[in-house]
Specification:
single chain; 2 domains; Endonuclease III, domain 1; five-stranded mixed beta sheet; three-stranded antiparallel beta sheet
C-alpha cells in the first residue's frame, strides 16, 4: 500500500499511485522526467554493448540477460551470445543445447529456454522480426510487460513504461511507497507511477536514464543521494528512509537438500551425462547422474545404468544455492565399465568427452567438476 505521508485522506503520494496526483503530487510527477533526462545527458551510460547498433533483438537479449544479473556479468555473455546468434533467425535455427551452452554460468536457465522458444515463435509467426505491438510481444515466451516496454521504448521510441528492479527502487523511494515491490498491491501502485512518469518525448533516453539511475546512484545499499538529480523531491530521503525502502522480501529460511553426483567414468575416460528435464533446476542442461545419499552406489549404478563399478572415490562436498533452496552436493568419481561400450549413448544420455562435445550445455557446477578431470594424462585430480 502507498504510505500516507503528505496530508489527510492519503495525500498526493497515495493519490498519485491511484492515478489522481493532486496539485503538489502533480508537480513532483512533472519534475522527475526533466531532471532525470538532464542528468542522463551528462552522466548516463551510453557505451554499453547493447546500445551500439541498437535494435529490437539486441534490446530483447540484453533485457532478458539483465534480469536478476549485474551489468558487469552480462556484458561478456551478451557479446558472445549476439556474435553467435546475431538475430532471431539465427537463434531459432540453433539447437537448444548450443543456446544453453552460451548461457551456461548466467543462471536462471528458464530465461535461455524461453529465448529459444520465443525466437522460434518469431520465425514462425513474425517473419523473423520481433513485433512492435505490445500484446504480440507479451504473447511470446518469457516476455512480460516490463521487457516489452523496454523493447518498445528503446528500439522503437514508443511510449511504454518499464518496471524492472532498478525502476522499482527509484519510484518506491521517490514516492515513499511502503511494502515489498513483489506484493501485487505494491506492484500495481508502482506500475501506475511508472506510467505517469514516462514522458512522450525522448522516451528511449528516459527509459535508459531511470534504469541507469537505479543501477549507479539509487543503489540498493549506500545510495548516493548527494549526486541524485531527484534528491530535492525524494520522499525517502526527506524522511530518512532510504535504508528501508523499498521493503525487502519477507524473510524465509531456505531448505537444504542433499544429493550425490556421480562421475561415471568408462575405460576410455569418457563420463556419463544425463539431460535434465525441461523444467526445474538446470532444465534442459546436461548434468551428472544423481544417486540418492541413502542408496547403495554399486547396486544403483548396476541397476540404473548397467555400469559395473570397479572403484569409487568421494570428492569434497560443495554447496550450490538456488533462489528457493540450497543443494549440498557430494561428488563421487566412479570408475568402471558399462555393459555395452556405448549402450547409453543415445537420447537423453551421452558419454561425454570435452573435445567431442564442445556444444553441449552444462550446469555450472557440473562443468566445474568435469574440469577437475581434465588433467587425467598426469593422473587423477586430487
Amino acid at each position: 500500500m502507498a504510505r500516507r505521508h503528505e496530508g489527510g485522506g492519503g495525500g498526493p503520494v497515495a493519490a498519485a499511485a491511484s492515478g489522481d496526483p493532486g496539485t503538489g503530487g502533480r508537480a513532483r510527477l512533472n519534475a522527475l522526467a526533466p531532471r532525470l533526462l538532464a542528468w542522463w545527458d551528462r552522466h548516463g551510460r551510453k557505451d554499453l554493448p547493447w546500445q551500439c547498433e541498437r535494435n529490437a533483438y539486441r534490446v530483447w537479449i540484453s533485457e532478458v540477460m539483465l534480469q536478476q544479473t549485474r551489468v558487469a556479468t552480462v556484458i561478456p555473455y551478451f557479446e558472445r551470445f549476439v556474435a553467435r546468434f546475431p538475430d532471431a533467425g539465427a537463434l531459432a535455427s540453433a539447437s537448444l543445447d548450443e543456446v544453453l551452452r552460451h548461457w551456461s554460468g548466467l543462471g536462471y536457465y528458464a530465461r535461455a529456454r524461453n529465448l529459444h522458444a520465443a525466437a522460434r515463435a518469431i520465425a514462425e509467426r513474425h517473419a523473423g522480426e520481433l513485433p512492435a505491438d505490445p500484446h504480440a510481444l507479451t504473447d511470446l515466451p518469457g516476455i512480460g510487460r516490463s521487457t516489452a516496454g523496454a523493447i518498445l521504448a528503446l528500439a522503437h521510441a514508443r511510449r511504454a513504461p518499464i518496471l524492472d528492479g532498478n525502476v522499482k527502487r527509484v519510484l518506491a523511494r521517490y514516492h515513499a511507497i511502503d511494502g515489498w515491490p513483489g506484493d501485487p498491491a505494491v506492484t500495481r501502485a508502482l506500475w501506475t507511477l511508472a506510467e505517469a512518469h514516462t514522458p512522450r518525448r525522448r522516451v528511449a533516453a528516459y527509459t535508459q536514464a531511470i534504469m541507469d539511475l537505479g543501477a549507479t546512484v539509487c543503489t540498493r545499499a549506500r545510495p548516493r543521494c548527494s549526486v541524485c538529480p531527484l534528491a530535492a523531491d525524494c520522499r525517502a530521503r526527506a524522511d530518512e528512509r532510504t535504508g528501508e525502502l523499498p521493503a525487502a522480501r519477507p524473510r524465509r529460511t531456505n531448505p537444504t537438500r542433499s544429493t550425490r553426483l556421480l562421475l561415471l567414468r568408462g575405460p576410455d575416460r569418457s563420463v556419463l551425462l544425463e539431460r535434465r528435464p525441461p523444467s526445474g533446476i538446470w532444465g534442459g542442461l546436461w548434468s551428472l547422474p544423481e544417486c540418492p545419499p541413502e542408496a547403495d552406489l554399486v547396486a544403483y549404478c548396476r541397476a540404473r545404468y548397467a555400469f559395473t563399478v570397479t572403484a569409487q572415490r568421494p570428492w569434497p562436498a560443495l554447496r550450490h544455492s538456488f533462489t528457493h533452496f540450497h543443494l549440498d552436493i557430494t561428488p563421487v568419481l566412479v570408475d568402471g565399465a558399462p555393459a555395452g561400450a556405448r549402450a547409453l549413448d543415445a537420447g537423453d544420455t551421452l558419454w561425454y568427452n570435452g573435445g567431442r562435445h564442445a556444444d553441449v550445455g552444462l550446469a555450472a557446477p557440473v562443468a566445474a567438476l568435469l574440469r577437475r578431470l581434465e588433467p587425467t594424462a598426469k593422473g587423477d585430480p586430487t
